[in-house]
Design a protein that fits this description.
Blueprint: H1 8-34, H2 41-45, H3 52-60, H4 62-85, H5 89-106, H6 128-141, H7 144-147, H8 151-154
């Protein structure tokens, strides 16, 4: 396989993107953990489209809701810390994609769907979750953690292919 050479500015841009997305995940997770009144119930009850039945059944079962809340909070934190530290960056990026995709399909920005939770705009299929999914996909293609991050020490390489 041919070795790819990236400029310092290219690597820096990718690492900055990784850290910024990591910060967003980490911050969202910490805010949820620190707020004793936070629950995903409101978000789930506001779900439209094909998963509205599943969302309603989760909310109606206190144990299931508690599990979903716990997993959501700590997944956000774990993904955020991993991305910031460059630790298992591909796994963290893929995990972030899965989590954001769940957010996207539970609250899709489709014509005719209105939600009680405020949206940051109406973009006809495109929202911040989809944009961040695409950014995380880009990060899965470039091993920024082996360039700058803990992955460099774990995998004992600085190879960018």
């Amino acid at each position: 396989m041919e070795k790819k050479n990236y400029t310092n500015i290219q690597l820096t841009a990718l690492v900055v993107l990784r850290v910024l997305i990591g910060w967003h995940f980490l911050y969202e997770g910490i805010v949820k953990v620190l707020n004793p009144y936070w629950s995903s119930a409101g978000y789930l009850l506001d779900t439209k489209w094909i998963f509205s039945g599943l969302a309603s059944s989760i909310v109606s079962n206190p144990t299931a809701l508690k599990i979903v809340d716990y997993l959501n909070e700590w997944a956000l934190i774990a993904i955020g810390v991993s991305l910031i530290a460059g630790f298992l960056t591909r796994t963290a990026s893929i995990s972030g994609i899965v989590l954001l995709f769940l957010y996207y399909i539970f609250h899709p920005p489709f014509i005719g769907y209105t939600y009680t939770t405020p949206a940051e705009g109406s973009y006809l299929f495109i929202n911040k979750n989809l944009i961040e999914i695409c950014a995380l996909f880009v990060l899965t293609l470039f091993p920024t953690g082996t360039a700058i991050g803990l992955d460099r020490f774990i995998f004992k390489k600085n190879k960018l292919d």
